[in-house]
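[job 4417] fold queue: 2 targets
>>> target A
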Amino acid sequence: MEAVQSNFSWFSTHQYVVEVSSDGQNWSTAIDRSGNWQTVSHDYVQLDAPARGRYVRIANRRSGSNLSLTGFRVFGNAD
């Protein structure tokens, strides 16, 4: 995984983390937006270094309203 684009239902602050796992049991944080106070409806994050894993999830930490995704795109090459 080299980048992630999260599309939210409405323009608000969203605090979340994106995690990756190779087995679906043990997770590591690839993107930490838990301290984000920027108001966005679409958030594109390019990672400094690729994260490897078979599973990807987004976890809500806090939002200015209810968290509702309209899209979640993961970019990178499968090797």
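>>> target B
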Amino acid sequence: MAMALGAVRPHVAVESLEGVLECAKAGDNDAFGEVVRSLSPGLVRFLRRRLCRDDDTANCVVQDAWVATWPRLKCFDSI
């Protein structure tokens, strides 16, 4: 799945992001915040190009995705 993340250009290297994600999966709120800060800008850009032309809508979709992801984060195998 690293290829999919590369498409949204995370602010940290994918290898580093995997370590941060592992910390987030262990319940580290700060680590989850780093994942969100790293991936959100690229996800918003992607959605703005593919789903809508509206920044507010793209931001809301990404925000909703993160809110849904947090309680289920332990279920993810890898990024």
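[job 4417] complete. Note on B: Residues 8 and 40 are 9 Å apart (CA to CA).
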